[in-house]
From TrEMBL:
Similarity field: Belongs to the leucine-binding protein family.
Pfam families: Peripla_BP_6 (PF13458), TPR_6 (PF13174)
PROSITE patterns with a match to the protein in the record: TPR (PS50005)
Protein's recorded name: ABC transporter substrate-binding protein
Keywords on record: Signal, TPR repeat
Alphabetized InterPro entries for the sequence: BCAA_transport (IPR051010), Leu-bd (IPR028081), Peripla_BP_I (IPR028082), TPR-like_helical_dom_sf (IPR011990), TPR_rpt (IPR019734)
Domain Leucine-binding protein positions: 298-472, 589-700
TPR repeats: 98-131
Superkingdom classification of source: Bacteria
Keyword Signal: yes
Amino acid sequence: MHLAMEVLSASRRALVAALALTLTACPKSPSRTDSRDDTSGDDTTQNNRPRVEVKQDATANAALAQARTQAQGNPDKKQAAEAYLSVRKAYPATTAGQDALYNAGVLYFESKDYANARKTFNELLFENPLYAQAEDAKHKLAVSAMEVGAYRDAYQTLTSLAERAEGAEKEQLLKEAARAAEGAGLFSQALSSAVKDAGDAQTPEEKTAAVQKVEQLVEGRASFLDIARVQEGLSPSNPAWPVLQFKLARIYYHLRDWTRLEETLQTYLREAPNSTFAPQAKELLARATRRVEVRPRTVAVLLPMTGRYQPIGEAVLRGVKLGLQGSDIELVVKDTQGDVNKTGTAMEQLAFDDGAIAALGPLLVDDTKRAALLAEELQVPLLTLSRQEGITDIGPYVFRNMLTNSAQARAIADYAMNVKGYKRFAVLYPNIPYGVELANEFWDDVVSRGGAVRGAESYSYDQTTFTGEAKRLVGRYYLEDRGDWAEAVRDVQGENITDAYRRRKAMEKAKSGVEPIIDFEGLFIPDDWRRVSLVTPALAVEDIVTNACDPRDLERIRKTTGKKDLKTVTLFGTNQWSSPKGRSGLPELLERGGKFVTCSVYVDGFFVDSQRPATQKFVKTYRDAYKETGRDPGLLEAIGYDSARMVRQVIDKQRPNTRAAMREALAGLKDFDGATGRTSFNDKREADKQLFLLSVDSKGVNEINVDKEKAAVRGSGS
């Protein structure tokens, strides 16, 4: 009996895809439909595991999953917290035990039981300060401490968190810290007293001691609000005035409040030109002024040129230099070393010291976040080369030119539905963030276009056999829910076979006769080519025909199977399917996957053998420039080349003299014909371009002329 699965709502669908990350801890439903619809479990990943010696334990994981299920169905959060604590008590030295402790703390916090929340989070952080959710636990611990009147503890925790935070998060933490400090009565009164002592000092020794006390309170103790409150209305004649005024200036510099910074420094230098901090104040004022001094033909690039990520940095830089070849644009290379702090320093240097009108990069996620925040604060146009989704949401000075997961999912869905005419799909994906994210993106896009996802199965990142997943996709795993299987069993039982061997053989024959339920036309596999070459043979075993794009192949399969009505499935993939050439000269995907990967289609951001003129021109230029390496360019080189040429084109044609003008010109870039496609920036400053759709046949990989195929579809009226 066919068990159709209706498309889930967007929120439930996200949970199904995220469930892949906790499948080992969650019980499986014994039906094909349930295996697709199960939305239990939380949305966790394995990227940020605690770095303490705790054990994974299957029994503990199962207990945690059961507690989670109970908690989700229990409106009484305190009772739900007790369910988690029972897991913690039973399995204290396991990762599940620590997760249970954290979840209990969250529930106590949400139910405003701050005393128990504080106790629970204290226990967790004492045992494992490096727990994956330690930052969140510390924040909730601090808020809980405030709510029970432990302001001193709250203040210490909040200020510690604020030191490592940025942007709006940092501002919020500072506000909470100020509240805690005020509640504790810690510094404001002491600072006011020290300032008064400085003004009342009668001897040089008393004056020096009072000013030193003010400096001690200001540096790392008094909050911004305390300092501002004490400084307001204070006479410049007070010996402590320069200390407070310069501290306020440094705070404004950190907050990128340029107007108040300049006003504060100018007042400082006017009222205390000979004070201890005057030279530093002059330098800081000059630095703030230099932020708007631009060298219109200077461009910076932020890349990891040393360290573990050096190869990818060098690849991008080769493309960037090629893109600027023959130009008088000065390129300033900043080595981020894959380090967030060095990235931040590099951004400040290129803005304040180098006068760059724009910057390219970085590549890595954390580096890009830091660079993007600073680009927005310093108002420097930044063309990032990161895959991080949503990075341009940080602000209008942040652009992105890189192949993203969402762009790949859209391209595949568009081709499959608008060109091939498919409406029903399945997804088979690895339970890692990359696989889950792409599964989500593809699912959303298919549903938004009026299609349906009929099945979704996940597998472990290190898995090498896929029999179970293939069986579940076609309804052959949970046979007890199949009406045709039940009928076959009754037929065998009706034969009254007494011999055990013959009975077993009869059951095996009946099982092999159960037809697969192939209710999808396309199967999306967001994984790398090595895994795909292992997955596809398992699909063939379950009679999923994927290599029938040639009518002759289709006829041959009909004769082999004896089935006239064959349901064929097209495999779709991402740029991770791109593989190097093997010994035969064919891509290794094809060498390893053989006939099972032919007729597949995958997407990429660059194709070295493309017939697009701009791509061919780049490939030839690259081969001529770097022929000593003997290597062809890849996506990184092509993205670096196009990004540099985009900036070059804007500078040469529109000649912006300010960063604001550069930003406007870059935002208006349309139809740039590059190696990675004809590119325009959309209203979110994301690079829109037609990606490369690639098909696999027995002779290799070929680019699909999507426009030509779409025209053929329109011409046929389908």
